[in-house]
Automatic annotation (TrEMBL), chain B:
Protein family per UniProt: Belongs to the aldehyde dehydrogenase family.
Protein name in UniProt: Aldehyde dehydrogenase family protein
Transmembrane helix keyword on record: no
Domain Aldehyde dehydrogenase: residue ranges: 48-492
Protein's UniProt keywords contain Cell membrane: no
Alphabetical UniProt keywords: Oxidoreductase
InterPro entries: Ald_DH/histidinol_DH (IPR016161), Ald_DH_C (IPR016163), Ald_DH_CS_GLU (IPR029510), Ald_DH_N (IPR016162), Aldehyde_DH_dom (IPR015590)
GO molecular function, one term: oxidoreductase activity, acting on the aldehyde or oxo group of donors, NAD or NADP as acceptor
Active site: 273
Length: 300, 499
């Protein structure tokens, strides 16, 4: 007698917990072949606001964690993902439009591998950001001055509709690498890898609230993030071109930083630094050096 | 505060002015060679515009200074077209080393005409001649000199092996540092290979038009820099012009938001340097006399017309009385008056309009229950002046603690713990600058990390240098000016480094 599968209820990921949508709404997710796959939570405005609160709460701790520590945590995410490689491959394959046959499996495998490798890539960036994007300023006066990059804060992001896992990781990883926290709206049609990624994040030593994942409609949720006074930046990767202007206008209300790459980005390409740079502030610090004779003269 | 009030009944210690006044030491206005009328600079020529002439006023006297042609219908189109031609035919294809040599020439040209420029700036803006002479003009020259050196080193700017210019930049600058802001905008744009259409502020168009002469004398190819005087309507037309690839704006947060909103969805690059309400934080272990000098410099430099002014003093409760007493004594010695006098510390408010705004915002401090102290310094009976003003008993909710006044008005609050100082400092939508005064090294670095501001001055204030990035967090804008990150605002990253 064959055993009946235990089906999973897919929920949101906010503040390190897995709540249902406050609205009680769900929507049906189908696989690539159009068959019912699961019910996913349909995030509401309230869920988005709760997620921003969680992200803001997590920000001071995450930004002041050492770069070494953040790197290890992100590396740990890669490890956890590697351990669930087959599960993710299956989820990614099932969501893809051509989902059967060896080639479909191989394609899904490649996407999962690329996502893992990308996390490893960013794990190694955490402790290089300050040196690569900051530096000492040789000012014309008796001052020590340096400029150092800092995370901008809470980033509201829309993950791409395609590339449900690799695209999602491509969005999340650079945001958190430099110490930002994120509220991310997952692919609407293919949310299952995102919710499962949340399980990976929850078991990866990533503090709760650093990444918050919402499933549902980006068109519904993103305007609330764009207009939210406690969101510092927007990543519009997953927002269609014709919907971006409205979000960018809303973002202007609190002078948010907006990252809006072309809609046809290839996530398997070697990542550049644009996503890292998009969510960095530069802080310049000055202090007098005084006029000690120690500094340059001969009188020690 | 009660104890402080009691102590203040004792006469303040004698100041220099009690022993006799300085003799006036006015700089000669003739050195400015002010012309009766100035023209726009478009496509390498000085030309009239289609707009009505504006009259710029000497804020020190309130008298008209000169008339200036302004841009009218079609002028922005012509300027953008000229900049496009210059970009495509000459400037973007010229070897970086050659571009750099032009910028070096401009840097030298500014230095050579420094005394004249300082006089022009002071007559048109109202800032003390010692500030335009010692800060504005030399720093403007330094900005060109610094960026000149970048022109042939763009591949080392951290944006990949082959970064490229963006195209035509539309730039709008404010009236508080007219020449210096022109340099901050033009120098990096040109170094990176862009061409420029720039609009100076309506009340301060003169120094940039002298800069235009220097640019022309440097032989810069026609159309690389175009200068269009005018009011806000010219600026609005410029920043939304479809022929512009990159917009850079320095000014108020309200206008910055309008620009960001207007550019939504266009994909055009934008940097904004907006308002501020900086906290200047004084701990009880700070060297108090130095801190007082820093507080004075922070809020009274350039009449407080500084976006990064230290307009909120946060002082630790245990030293608050001492700091405020010393501050008031020190401010009482500041000499307010003729901006052309080399002894003047505080010059004129830039315009009657700004004076009215400062007056109105200060009045809200009285209405909200703060305690106003005004320097007893004599105020000239003509021109636009506002005496140095300090408000105590200020609470966080008051407008004088929240709104940018952009004048010589300081709001004082107290704190007990470093955490309270941080939370008060960060309790603002702005985030341009901050000051920290303490003798403790670890506290300096800890505070520098904790405050959300683009520039942190520790045991100093209001320092600027072309090598040091300047710009804001939050509603103080985005993008930087100066340093490598300032240059990046005018470069398109290498194709491999864009996404």
């Amino acid at each position: 007698m064959s055993r009946l599968d235990v089906a999973k209820t897919y929920k949101l990921y906010i503040g390190g917990k897995f709540p249902r949508s406050e609205s009680g709404r769900t929507y049906q997710v189908t696989d690539g072949a159009g068959r019912f796959a699961a019910n996913a939570a349909q995030a509401s405005r309230k869920d988005a606001r709760d997620a921003v609160v969680a992200a803001r709460k997590a920000f001071p701790g995450w930004r002041s964690a050492t770069a070494y520590n953040r790197g290890q945590v992100i590396y740990r995410i890669a490890e956890m993902l590697e351990g669930r490689r087959d599960q993710f491959t299956e989820l990614v394959r099932a969501g893809n439009t051509s989902s059967t046959g060896q080639r479909a499996v191989a394609k899904a495998h490649r996407e999962v591998d690329a996502a893992i490798d990308l996390l490893v890539h960013y794990a190694g960036w955490t402790d290089k950001v300050a040196a690569v994007f900051g530096g000492a300023n040789p000012v014309a006066g008796p001052y020590f001055s340096f400029t150092t990059p800092e995370p901008t804060g809470v980033v509201g992001a829309a993950a791409p509709q395609q590339d449900a896992l690799l695209g999602l990781v491509s969005v999340i990883a650079p945001i958190i690498t430099s110490g930002n926290t994120a509220v991310v709206v997952a692919s609407q049609d293919r949310p299952l890898p995102a919710v499962t990624l949340a399980e990976v994040l929850a078991t990866s030593d990533l503090p709760g609230g650093v990444v918050n994942l919402l499933t549902g409609s980006a068109a519904e949720v993103m305007p609330h993030l764009a207009a939210h006074g406690d969101v510092n930046a927007l990543d519009l990767t997953g927002v269609a071109g014709d919907q971006r202007a409205e979000l960018e206008r809303a973002a202007a209300g609190t002078v948010k930083r907006v990252f809006a790459p072309p809609p046809d980005v290839t996530f398997s390409a070697d990542p550049g630094t644009a996503r890292l740079r998009a969510f960095l502030e530069q802080k310049t610090v000055w202090h007098p050096t005084g006029a000690l004779s120690l500094a340059g003269g001969g009188s020690y | 505060m009660a104890a402080r009030a009691a102590r203040k009944t004792v006469p303040a210690k004698k100041t220099f002015t009690d022993f006799g006044d300085y003799a006036p030491a006015p700089e000669s206005a003739a050195i400015g060679r002010i012309q009766p009328r100035y023209q726009m600079y478009l496509d390498g020529a000085f030309v009239d515009g289609g707009g009505a002439d504006l009259t710029t006023v000497n804020p020190g006297t309130g008298e008209p200074l000169a008339t200036v042609a302004t841009a009218g219908k079609g002028d922005v189109d012509r300027a953008v077209a000229a900049a496009r031609r210059a970009y495509e035919r000459v400037w973007s294809t010229m070897p970086g080393a050659e571009r750099g040599k032009y910028l070096f020439r401009i840097a030298r040209g500014i230095a050579e005409r420094a005394r004249e420029l300082a006089v022009v700036e002071t007559l048109d803006n109202g800032k003390p001649i010692k500030e335009s002479r010692d800060v504005d003009v030399p720093t403007a020259s330094a900005h060109f000199f610094y960026h000149a050196g970048w022109a042939d080193k763009l591949r080392h700017a951290g944006l990949g092996a082959n970064p490229t210019p963006i195209g035509v930049a539309g730039q709008v600058i404010p009236w508080n540092f007219p020449l210096l802001m022109a340099a901050w905008k033009i120098a990096p744009a040109l170094a990176a290979g862009n061409t420029v259409v720039i609009k100076p502020a309506e009340t301060t168009p003169l120094s940039i038009l002298v800069l235009a002469e220097i640019i022309a004398d440097a032989g810069l190819p026609e159309g690389v820099v175009n200068i269009l005087p005018g009011a806000g309507d010219v600026g609005a037309e410029l920043v939304t012009h479809p022929g512009i690839d990159k917009v850079a704006f320095t000014g108020s947060t309200a206008v910055g938001k309008q620009i960001q909103s207007a550019l939504a969805g266009t994909g055009r690059r934008l940097t904004l340097e907006l308002g501020g309400k900086a906290a200047n934080i004084v701990f009880d272990d700070a060297p108090i006399d130095q801190a007082v000098e820093g507080i004075v410099n922070g809020i009274f430099f350039n009449q407080g017309h500084v976006c990064c002014a230290g307009s909120r003093l946060l002082v630790q409760e245990s030293v608050a009385d001492e700091v405020i007493d010393k501050l008031e004594d020190r401010v009482s010695t500041l000499r307010l008056g003729d901006p052309m006098d080399k002894n003047t510390d505080i010059g004129a408010i830039n315009s009657a309009e700004q004076l009215a705004r400062i007056t109105e915002l200060s009045a809200t401090g009285d209405d909200d229950g703060a305690e106003r102290w005004t320097s007893p310094c004599p105020v000239p009976d003509r021109g636009f002046y506002f005496p140095p003003t300090v408000f105590t008993n200020v609470s966080q909710s008051m407008r004088i603690a929240r709104d940018e006044i952009f004048g010589p008005v300081l709001a004082v609050q107290t704190f007990r713990t470093p955490d309270e100082a941080v939370s008060k400092a960060n309790n603002t939508p702005y985030g341009l600058s901050a000051g920290v005064w303490t003798d403790k090294g670890s506290r300096i670095l800890g505070m520098a990390q904790a405050v959300r501001a683009g520039v942190v001055w520790a045991n100093t204030f209001n320092r600027f240098d072309p090598t040091a990035a300047f710009g804001g967090y939050g509603e103080s804008g985005f993008g930087r000016e100066g340093g490598r990150s300032g240059l990046a605002a005018y470069l398109q990253p290498d194709a491999k480094d864009q996404f």
